[in-house]
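Hi support team,

I'm filing this because I wasn't sure whether my run with flavin-adenine dinucleotide finished correctly. The job status page said complete, but I'd like someone to confirm that the output block is well-formed before I use it downstream. Pasting the exact inputs I used:
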Amino acid sequence: MISTDVLVVGSGAGGSVASLELVSQNFEAVLAEAGGDVDLERARSGYSPVTSSIEILRGEGLGGTTLVSMGNMLVTEDVIERFKGLGVDLTAEIREVCELTSVSKVPEDKLPPFAKKFIDVAEGTGLKTKVMPKSIYFDRCIGCGRCAYGCPAKAKISALDLIKAGMQRGLKVLTRFRVDKLHRRQGKLIAEGLVDGNRLKVECRALVLAAGALETPKLLAQLHDDESVGRNLFVDPFVTIGGPYDGPPSSEGIQMAAYIDFGDFMLSPHYTGLLQFQLAAKGVDLGSRRIASMMVKVADEGKGVVWPDGVVETRMTRRDLRVLERGVEKAKELLIELGVKENEIAMTHVRGAHPGGTAAIGRVVSRDLTIAGCDGVFVADASLIPPPLGKPPILLVMSLAMKVARRVCEYLR
Ligand SMILES: Cc1cc2nc3c(=O)[nH]c(=O)nc-3n(C[C@H](O)[C@H](O)[C@H](O)COP(=O)(O)OP(=O)(O)OC[C@H]3O[C@@H](n4cnc5c(N)ncnc54)[C@H](O)[C@@H]3O)c2cc1C
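And here is everything the job wrote out:
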């Protein structure tokens, strides 16, 4: 049995920041991670998608899903205001996380030629484009376009960097430790799980659940009897849409280097190899032409559920489908402006990469970031975000996790 002040379960966006903050405040912390020590260069091997009516992408391994992220670090003003309305002012934490992860906009000389074309064409039609803020060491970036595979050049700043900083301050990390049982004994919280086939127990004064929005509700439900746990799952459904044209390929350079925010959906330059299959299935002959493509990402209403037995149910409402349809129409207009023929446009199936909402503030977690009737247990991941979102969540998750960790410190004191 290991004994510690705090056990943090899950080492992704939320768990990395929470554990770093806890050891920085001189508390003993253990970080449990179900996956292995996946290197940034080989992060692709950590993909652990979940099958439901929408395929949900996520990463398993030290650093969680941040290892396969595009490095986007965005929180919009309306989201900040929405959280203020919930009694959670994240202004200071957002600033601190941006410093911690060196957030800056993609510099002009690193903007991929396709992103530049996307910006020109969109602005030409009267749309307002923005350059994406990222956590990337741009001087190391080789523009290979393989952000979703990890990062061959190790240019991406991820949760791994924060975990390493935490380890220098005494953070203990247990990889391949999947926590599967939580209970209380004599005023202490006990977490159990398997490490390489052996049962391990960790006893702690406070427990921080940061296993991601698809796993945290399953764990929380063991300690907290509340029907709202696991409800309101959103995934920010997206499609990638594109076709051949005579211009720079969308596959090259930093992905999602720019975006257009329509409120309930966003458009951003994005390529996936899946498009090649869709184009081939449509009988489109690429010849010597390149592919122009972009992502349409929808802020869904969050009507999915993670049931206590782990079954994940996702659902796009009629409203979500209408928003997706509008986004696809807008993307088609831009693709046609770029020179893609309408009858040669193809689209991937709907996927989701931002699961959240399953222990949302104001629903499961109180506005003071505690859980009523569940002493010593905290949530510090995307589960906390009430839907809709429709934007890259990492900066928001990290900022929330930092605030939660400070609440945990108060609790321990
Ligand atoms: C391809 C892709 C690209 C993305 N790009 C971006 C981007 O550029 N910007 C952005 O903001 N967002 C991006 N996202 C989304 C973002 O990565 C996630 O929203 C974010 O990482 C969620 O943080 P989290 O802490 O909730 O969960 P995660 O980061 O997923 O971390 C959860 C961790 O908990 C571990 N775990 C689960 N169960 C257990 C258990 N029982 N015991 C121990 N450990 C457990 C998991 O293995 C995982 O490591 C992307 C997602 C994908 C799939």
